[in-house]
## 1
Amino acid sequence: MLAKRIIPCLDVKDNRVVKGIHFLNLRDAGDPVELGARYSEDGADELVFLDITATIRSRKTIVELVEKVAENVFIPFTVGGGIQTVEQMDELLRSGAEKVSVNTAAVQNPNLITEAARRFGNQCVVLAIDARRSKAKPDKWQVCVKAGSEPTDIDAVEWAAEGERLGAGEILLTSMDADGTKAGYDIELTKAVSDAVNIPVIASGGAGKLEHLYEAIVDGRADAVLMASITHFENYTINQMKEYLAGRGIPVNL
């Protein structure tokens, strides 16, 4: 079994890291450069930087801030938010990112995934999926775009499989229902997507205690776990997470 990854997430708004519940009621969590450096030093396997208002405000990701974060981290670094074209991806990769994450633009133009994979390689392309349980079909999850503000009729599990076919190298799967609740990841959703694809799935949304990480990996079959609240507000350190998982037989990079 490959080592499972611990990945802190920096949701950035107005040059500050923020965190909310169900994508709402955001509160300040600190400076992205300082937090990124701290997580890098503390042993995080990767880092995700999401400019959460870029798409809503119809602007590009903040390249200058990405450069500053990249200068201070020494781990793989994924950037997303407001990315519309392969040219923008190229700019971010040249600014220090190792991967780019697309969500809304990929839904609007699925060929963007294929174009990016051909130009940069599948390993650079992350398909981000914000999903919530469908009210019309309670056994299904629907894809939401524009920072979760706009639901679609797209089935999240089917979209993940299609994303892999188009060339995505990884799925960043966020449960909007669980986001920020600290009540645990949506295991049913995570497992459904993990079973539908052959590429790594990063579970996101709902981490509140160490057991939740274990559940996402073992029961949800996630290849990595993303978290924000429990690391930003210093409930747990990266080392505590890794030691806990290792103690329960999960391979991690200590």
## 2
Amino acid sequence: MKILAIESSCDETAASVVENGKVCSNIIFSQTEHNKYGGVIPEIASRAHLRSISSVVTEALAKAGCDLNELQAIAVTVAPGLSGSLLVGANFAKGLALRLNIPVIPINHIEGHLFSGFIASSTLEFPFISLVVSGGHTSLFYVNSFSEYSILGSTRDDAAGEAFDKTAKMLGLGYPGGPLMDKIAVSGNPNYYQFPRALNSNDSLVFSYSGLKTSVRVFLQKEFPNGVPEDKFPDICASIQEAIIEPLIKKSLYAVKKCSVNHLVVAGGVSANSRLRKRLLNEAKKIHIIIPDLEYCIDNAAMIGFLAEKKMSVKDFYQNMELNFTVNSSSLRASKKEN
């Protein structure tokens, strides 16, 4: 079975060919138009998807050595994300499916991240805990099967990735801020400055980052009203980064213990953070930690195709497929019950 997958939920245009659980190609085109604005501009993002989607799909097919007529289905991200961006991917998938007379499998972006650990490790087993952490989402899940999972806790306000980007912007580091802060923090002392960790009690699985942003802003105004000296950047970045990732680690490990499981999957753009990876692997000696390779941490189509293939294995799936689905910008909470 060969599936073409398309992902366009935000500012990455991505396409992948997946065959029998194997990723044959995974092409990602990251939009740079937003850098000068310090964040993603929805209209600019959707126009950029329109310009690039055809060439990205063509490249994915070519790299996989796959002809259009070999495809059995097309998978596409339909939620959550920017409505205009999602529409570009969904409409492209529908048009191609009509031409080839094959079904389209609508996939939730967060579910794609949720199960991306299976791409990284063949030893991953149900049940497991999954931390999905990105620019728009920070949630812990208990995952029992490909169709059965529950939300253990989410952020009350900002996502961890948003905290990275907004505090980096305060420092004048540019966008996206997370990777820039990670790079600078390597040479800094993570305990040099103390920033707050909200909702940090032992039994809480809820996150909050709005207070951290306020704390950083007040700190910079008080300590460095004329701008941050260059030699202070490593320690400041390392200290902010520590305040962001420490709750992620603490709450994830607590969830593993609370639910009596042995596997923890960490996925989403923030899972590429080097400090988060290092601390998790060092502190969770008795837990099987699975963090996908960097190309599967950011928004990608391989995870969409992989999950679609699993969904297609369900009996009578083909008979239930139609092209009348719509995109939805809302988060996963709308469709999954939170514990």
